[in-house]
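Morning run. Coffee first, then this:
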Amino acid sequence: MAVGAKGGRRQMMQSCLVLFGGAIGALLRFWLGQQMQKRWGGAFPLPTFLINMLGSFALGLLFAASDGGPLWWLFGTGLLGAFTTFSTFSVEAMTLFQRGKRSVALAYLIGSATLGLLFAWLGLTVYGLLD
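And here it is:
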């Protein structure tokens, strides 16, 4: 019984760290994106691109430095997870390459880009049909 309670407290702590980090990451993305759009807005989605590149770099650093504990939950899963999901995508693809799983990495890269575009198109299409 005591082990279950201890595991429950650990899961609650993890959840709170992810929640808090995610709230901060989402707000950072929102505020930073707005400021970038005001300054450099244009046809190319530069704010999103720059945020994704920054997030990829930060998650790569954290991934290399982390032991998977509370700092990972707060900053990796929470803050950077909400700041950008592209950072996770990038680190996962690089990890696959580093582990010698080139065909899986290529399938992941091509599949993510292709299906991401497809689902974005589907979302736009469905919205257009409902509007």
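The two ends are 54 Å apart (CA to CA). Good start to the day.
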